[in-house]
């Protein structure tokens, strides 16, 4: 009986993650930061439960059921390797500190996407300057980079104003408890250039907090 020759160990194709990378710390922030960014999605427009990434494990966990009927009007998540710290705070005059989380993003898509825990490539078009109590909690607004319906959208003024109104209303109310007042205030809407400055600040804050 012929002796079988042992096979050489197989090599993994680059890039290859032997273990699942942490969505916040283990992934690249984008193809061409700060304009074209990669986003990890936590919520879809259909969610009545607030899901949030576990900072310890990197898995999506249930934060809380929504106390009202409010639903996010767009995909909602964050940019990897960003952090809302001192530099982000300096761009938000009414905040005294950052919220200590990755930078949030709302991703507008013409085609419904009904699942979370996914990665999408985005093109940044603007943002909302939000303050939660005294914490800077900006929400970047972007479009799905591969969505042909939005291929000619380059700034927040290129999308229907009703979409911006829905985003402003959602973030003004989504943390509100029945009978109470919201701690979250949407101070203003800003353009793509301002959004890029916030992203650059959040990337620099991340490098300082966790290393490049």
Poorly predicted tracts of residues: none
Spatial sequence of strands, sheet with the most strands: 1-4-6-9-7
* Estimated structural class: alpha+beta
Radius of gyration: 19 Å
Q: Give the end-to-end Cα distance, rounded to a whole number of Å.
A: 57 Å
The CATH topology turns out to be Inorganic Pyrophosphatase
**Count of folded domains:** 1
The percent range for strand residues is 25-35%
**Helical content, roughly?**
10-25%
Which architecture name does CATH use? Alpha-Beta Complex
Summed up, the helix count is: 3
**What form results from the Cα inertia axes?**
globular
Specify the CATH class.
Alpha Beta
**CATH homologous superfamily identity:** Inorganic pyrophosphatase
Report what the structure shows.
With 212 residues, the chain is an alpha+beta fold. It has a single domain, classed as Inorganic Pyrophosphatase. It has 3 helices and 10 strands. The chain has a 5-stranded mixed beta barrel. The relative contact order is 0.19. The mean pLDDT is 91.
């Amino acid at each position: 009986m012929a002796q079988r020759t042992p096979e050489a160990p197989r090599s993994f194709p680059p890039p290859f993650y032997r273990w699942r990378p942490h969505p916040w710390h283990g992934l690249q922030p984008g193809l061409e930061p700060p304009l074209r960014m990669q986003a990890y999605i936590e919520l879809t427009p259909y969610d009545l439960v607030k899901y949030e990434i576990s900072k310890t494990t990197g898995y999506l966990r249930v934060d809380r059921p929504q106390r009202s009927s409010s639903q996010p009007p767009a995909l909602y998540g964050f940019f990897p390797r960003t952090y809302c710290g001192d530099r982000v705070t300096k761009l938000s005059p009414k905040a005294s500190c950052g919220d200590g989380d990755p930078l949030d993003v709302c991703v507008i898509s013409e085609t419904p996407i009904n699942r979370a825990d996914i990665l999408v490539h985005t093109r940044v078009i603007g943002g909302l300057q939000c303050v939660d109590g005294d914490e800077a909690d900006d929400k970047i607004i972007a479009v799905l980079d591969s969505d042909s319906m939005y291929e000619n959208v380059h700034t927040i003024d290129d999308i229907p104003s009703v979409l911006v109104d829905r985003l402003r209303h959602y973030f003004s109310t989504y943390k509100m408890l029945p009978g109470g007042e919201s701690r979250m205030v949407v101070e203003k809407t800003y353009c793509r250039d301002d959004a890029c400055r916030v992203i650059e600040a959040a990337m620099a804050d991340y490098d300082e907090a966790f290393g490049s």
